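Per your request, structure below.
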């Protein structure tokens, strides 16, 4: 059997000397390494029935770095491929893992994917094709990834068009295949989590340290373990390719994707619940506005196992919501009746000018005055706090401090409005994450900074608009694979 290692890399700055910390320190991040990596487990599970292949799940956020590299050293002779799912914060660590595999045994094939690679496909492959054999762009890549691994096991590789979403370096240039729609993958093989390493013990320990105490205090519930659940993915702002200016999520070829109806969603939730997961993390980028119809039908068609279970014994569900979705009492009531007890809500800036600069307003585009649209969004922020309190929902609130074009006076205005929102949320805010703006690849802010000739309007004066001008890329990425 040939091993295919699927790695969720750790934050680069935690394992590589000189690597800059690009996000909150992992030890301070309230949802870091508390439960399995859904992306890595999905890809590993998709390979479980490929003849001659043994998928190996490794989460570098809980498996020590030396242990991870040692595993590759020890099993190099039987490794078919090493694959890494990389965000910007973990990309350099991912490259180090792939380069290490190549150094140990050059015949090992390497694959990379996720948001960072999707946003900077050409640059990643141009600079790092020595240690990256294949890359996948977007989300709809589970089937093509499985097909690629199956072909590699047979000793062949077909033309890129056979693997939608793939990108390779060939003939001194990047060759890509368009993505294709595919259903949400739900056939997870949970036994893979502990097949090579004991991940469950550190996951549960982190969960009990970081998540359970706060929910015990605020909700009066004792929780054992958490698990991400994907009943849908997407955000309503992706529909018009109109994401917030700092958003780096690369939604791929489908702005919205979901399981096939309420029955499928409930089966997935029941499956996780039966496996003793009692904290279910709904991973959709936004719930009430994007998946309102699915949520309402789930409530209307709740199965007997759910309705017959006392509320105190049901799993606690958490998810994401925009403030303008949560401010609607009907949405809040639906979420609460479905067992959602905590929501992650971004209240990223307070003043109307800043909301406008960050492309946050969601009022109808026919509204002629952008400042008015932003003011409505701010009002939604305030109402969301009150609505959450009225419906017994806890909030994990996120603020992004700063935006392009901000000066001292505007910063002071933002801080004042944020304090007002925090005051509104007393008793309903379970945790508060405050981040200074750090534009990541894929975001509008990043593109504005790195491709200035491609935009005709600065962000503080309104949403930047793309032109057909030539792209100009930054020069901060190394041009060779790390040693």
């Amino acid at each position: 059997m040939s091993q295919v290692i699927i790695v969720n890399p750790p934050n680069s700055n935690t394992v590589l000397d000189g690597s800059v910390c690009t996000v909150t320190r992992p030890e301070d991040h309230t949802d870091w390494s508390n439960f399995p990596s859904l992306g890595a487990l999905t890809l590993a599970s998709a390979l479980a029935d490929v003849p001659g292949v043994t998928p190996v799940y490794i989460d570098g956020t809980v498996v020590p770095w030396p242990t991870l590299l040692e595993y590759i050293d020890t099993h190099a002779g039987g490794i078919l491929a090493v694959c890494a799912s990389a965000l910007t914060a973990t990309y350099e660590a991912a490259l180090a893992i792939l380069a290490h595999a190549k150094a140990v045994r050059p015949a090992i094939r390497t694959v990379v994917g996720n948001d960072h690679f999707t946003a900077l496909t050409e640059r990643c492959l141009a600079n790092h094709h020595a240690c990256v054999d294949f890359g996948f762009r977007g989300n709809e890549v589970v089937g093509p990834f499985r097909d690629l691994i199956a072909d590699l096991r047979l000793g062949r590789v077909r033309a890129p068009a056979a693997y939608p979403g793939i990108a390779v370096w060939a003939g001194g240039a990047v060759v890509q295949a368009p993505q294709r729609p595919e259903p949400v993958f739900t056939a997870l093989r949970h036994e893979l989590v502990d097949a090579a390493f004991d991940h469950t013990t550190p996951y549960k320990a982190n969960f009990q340290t970081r998540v359970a105490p706060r929910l015990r205090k605020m909700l009066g519930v004792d929780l054992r373990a958490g698990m991400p659940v994907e009943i849908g993915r997407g955000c309503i702002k992706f529909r018009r390719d109109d994401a917030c200016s700092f958003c780096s999520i690369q939604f791929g070829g489908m702005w919205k994707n979901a399981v096939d109806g309420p029955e499928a969603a409930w089966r997935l939730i029941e499956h996780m619940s039966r496996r003793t997961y009692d904290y279910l993390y709904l991973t959709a980028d936004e719930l009430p506005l994007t998946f309102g119809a699915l949520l309402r039908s789930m409530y209307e068609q709740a199965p007997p196992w759910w309705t017959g279970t006392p509320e105190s014994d049901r799993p606690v569900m958490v998810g994401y919501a925009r403030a303008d979705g949560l401010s609607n009492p009907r949405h809040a009531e639906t979420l609460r009746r479905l067992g959602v007890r905590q929501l992650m809500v971004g209240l990223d800036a307070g003043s109307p000018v800043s909301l406008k600069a960050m492309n946050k307003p969601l009022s109808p585009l026919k509204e002629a005055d952008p400042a008015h649209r932003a003011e409505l969004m701010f009002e939604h922020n305030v109402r969301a706090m009150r609505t959450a309190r009225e419906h017994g929902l806890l909030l994990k609130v996120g603020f992004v401090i700063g935006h392009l074009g901000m000066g001292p006076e505007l910063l002071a205005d933002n801080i004042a409005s944020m304090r007002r929102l925090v005051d509104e949320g007393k008793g309903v805010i379970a945790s508060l994450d405050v981040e200074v703006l750090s534009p990541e690849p894929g975001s509008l802010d990043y593109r504005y900074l790195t491709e200035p000739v491609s935009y005709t309007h600065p962000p503080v004066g309104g949403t930047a608009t793309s032109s057909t001008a030539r792209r100009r890329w930054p020069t901060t990425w190394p041009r060779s694979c790390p040693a």
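The radius of gyration is 22 Å.

Regards,
D.
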